[in-house]
Design brief:
By secondary structure, this protein is of the alpha+beta class. It has one domain. Helix content is 30%, strand content 39%. Strands 1, 2, 3, 4, 5 and 6 form a 6-stranded mixed beta sheet that branches. Strand 1 and strand 2 form a beta hairpin. The longest helix is centred in the first third of the chain and has 23 residues. The protein is elongated and about 65 Å long. The termini are far apart. About 7% of the residues have low confidence.
Length: 189
Amino acid sequence: MRVIKRFIRSTLLVLVTLTFIFAFLPATDSHAKTAKEINKEVNAALKLFAQQVQGGSQFLKAAKGALVVPNIVKAGLGVGGEYGQGALRIGDKTVAYYSLAAGSIGFQIGAEKVNLILIFMQEQALKNFRARSGWKAGVDGTVVFIDKGKEKSVDTTNIKDPIVGFLFGQRCLMANIAIEGAKFTKIVR
């Protein structure tokens, strides 16, 4: 009897979790954003980045390219997921659109939205990213995150890593968001 109760509880937890996740994460192209919508959100995220991170604008100017994924949604109840759509910019021009998707298991409950910028400081890192149809953070390339809360400002003379990441603008009910193992996939808009 105890085994049956555990099975029922586990099954209910999984069903509630999946319902919760799919309520927050777009699962089909019918919810996909247009290129115009993505670019508008990317522009707003870049403006916020310049406001929140001292030296951020100069840092972006020194970059070979920047992948901006605004309004990433992470939701979870035991099992979680993250999803967002963004644009790869070289200079001030959008050259491609990407989605970010990740899943996780562990103690988590709630939902949050956050902006992500991956800044490619080396041409080879950008080239490797663009050459893959599905690039995984931590597998196909290492991202070094700068904690803007600990760093008062950023400058290109102190940071020598090929790919630098920033999470900012958090509107959250969760403790963290991680992109380790997240898959970035090129999308057509």
